[in-house]
Amino acid sequence: MSVLKTNDLKKHYQTSTVVKAIDGIDFSVESGEFVSIVGSSGSGKSTLLHLLGGLDRPTSGSVEINGKAIYTMKDDELTIFRRRNIGFVFQSYNLVPVLNVEENILLPIELDGNKPDLAYVEQVIEVLGLTEKRLNMPNQLSGGQQQRVAIARALASKPAIVLADEPTGNLDSKTSMDVMGLLKISGERFGQTIVLITHNPEIAQMADRSVRIEDGHIVAGQGGVG
Questions:
Q1: Which whole number is the average pLDDT over 129-133?
Q2: Of 7, 109, 161, 204, whose Cβ has the fewest other Cβ atoms within 10 Å?
Q3: C-beta of residue 209 within 8 angstroms of C-beta of residue 195
């Protein structure tokens, strides 16, 4: 079953000329699949991730998550859908500095007015090696630990899909591989579907499938297209 599917997805910007950041992408991701998207700077990979996650509206085409066409939704409806169905992990961690580790992990669920599944969250915290850090504040953590908190936060709401945008961009190579290993293990443990943007070939190879994007087109790795 496809958790994520795009059809002829385009994002064009009008400057003095038309910039075709994304230009007709057909792409799908199956349930439980871990897919990396690689490409050089300016290839369109981050723009694609923003479109997949409902953070930016396309010029044309569609994105479906669990069979729902997200760009037919109004902005308020899309915000709620995104919070409930998409987990995000960004390069900059985006932790709330005045909240401790556990509070940061639970925040999106509580903002949605829902009660967290504490037994499940406890498992996520344990798998990511954060049990002894749960009461620490973000400024008491290393970069790798902060990114593990961000991954835990993304997983805690049991989203349909996790989208990770250069999650190791601020980490050294050893810490990057450690964090990516934990992301992969977490995805497998909790049956999570993950799409990862990276420029690092070593990290890309950790995924089940690697997709290459250049000049707004997928040029390799379209195995899941449908």
A1: 94
A2: 7
A3: no
Residue 176 has pLDDT above 80, yes or no: yes
Q: What is the pLDDT of residues 70-92, one digit of tens each?
A: 999 999 999 999 999 999 999 88
**What's the pTM?**
0.91
Residues 49, 50, 55: CA angle, nearest 5 degrees: 150
Residue 224's pLDDT is: 45
Mean of per-residue pLDDT scores for the chain: 91
Of 3.40.50.2000, 3.40.50.300, 3.40.50.720, 2.60.40.60, which CATH number belongs to 2-220? 3.40.50.300
Domain ranges of the chain: 2-220
Give the pLDDT confidence score for residue 212 in this predicted structure: 93
Which residue's structure tokens are 């556990």?
102
Q: What is the torsion angle, in degrees rounded to the nearest 10, for the CA atoms of residue 123, residue 127, residue 131 and residue 132?
A: 170
Burial 137-161 (b: 16+ CB within 10 A, else e): bbeebeebbbbbbbbbbbbbbbbbb
Q: Give the whole-angstrom CA distance, residue 172 versus residue 209.
A: 24
Q: Which of 30, 79, 61 is nearest to 207 (CA)?
A: 30
